[in-house]
Amino acid sequence: MKKLGIERRLMAAGEDKAMLDPFSPLKEEEVAHTRALLDNIHQQFIQVVKQGRGDRLKGDDQLLFNGLFWTGEQALALGLIDGLDTSSHVARDVIGAEKIVDYTRHPSPFERFADRLGVVMAKGLASSLGLSETAVR
Q1: Which of 46, 99, 104, 118 is paired with 20 by a 20 to 30 Å CA distance?
Q2: Backbone angles phi, psi at 82, to 5 degrees
Q3: pTM reported for the whole predicted model
Q4: 16: Cβ–Cβ under 8 A, 6 or more apart, which residues?
Q5: How far apart are CA 44 and CA 41, in angstroms?
Q6: How far apart are CA 91 and CA 73, in angstroms?
Q7: CA–CA distance, 13 with 19 (Å, rounded to integer)
Q8: Angle made by CA atoms 62, 63, 68, in degrees to the nearest 5
Q9: Helix (H, G, I), strand (E, B) or coil at 71
Q10: pLDDT value of residue 124
């Protein structure tokens, strides 16, 4: 920040409003408070999942609640979900949505042309430089 001439300013109304500020020295009491808060939230999460999933959960707490994430198939095997399906099916058949909007971005004809032109130009350049076509891919 000094090299770029950036001057840091911090204004806070309360004693702990700037807690865990990344540009201030780390204070152990702030870390302890934050860890206790995170532990409490994590225990609440575990309790809610256990209440909601019950006997469907497969595996011990260390496996299920350690922060890892799973594929759909793995989550199904662990009892974390009831099944796999598409978002359209769930929206239409489970929730009963009448209209489903597809927000998938599709390139415009010009974008497709420009992409194709770039490939053709790269192949031409590679050919003129004596490079093989596989070097371009």
Answers
A1: 46
A2: -90, -25
A3: 0.60
A4: 30
A5: 5
A6: 21
A7: 12
A8: 110
A9: coil
A10: 86
Q: Tens digit of pLDDT for each residue in 28-67?
A: 999 999 999 999 999 999 999 999 999 999 989 999 999 9
Q: What is the pLDDT of residue 133?
A: 57
In this structure, is the dihedral angle defined by the CA atoms of residues 70, 74, 77 and 83, taken in order, positive or negative?
positive
45 close to 65: Cβ distance less than 8 angstroms:
yes
Q: What letters, b where the CB count within 10 A reaches 16 and e where it falls short, cover 111-131? A: eeeeeeeeeeeeeeebeeeee
- Closest residue by Cα to residue 56 from 78, 84, 83: 78
pLDDT of 137: 56
Residue from 90, 68, 92 nearest 80 by CA: 68
User: For residues 30 and 13, what is the distance between their CA atoms, to the nearest angstrom?
Assistant: 17
- The three-class DSSP label of residue 15 is coil
Instruction: Report d(CA 106, CA 98) in Å as an integer.
Output: 23
* Other residues' Cβ atoms within 10 Å of the Cβ of residue 82: 10
At 99, which amino acid appears? Answer: K
Listed residue (55, 52, 57) closest to 79, CA to CA: 57
Q: Is the pLDDT of residue 135 over 90?
A: no
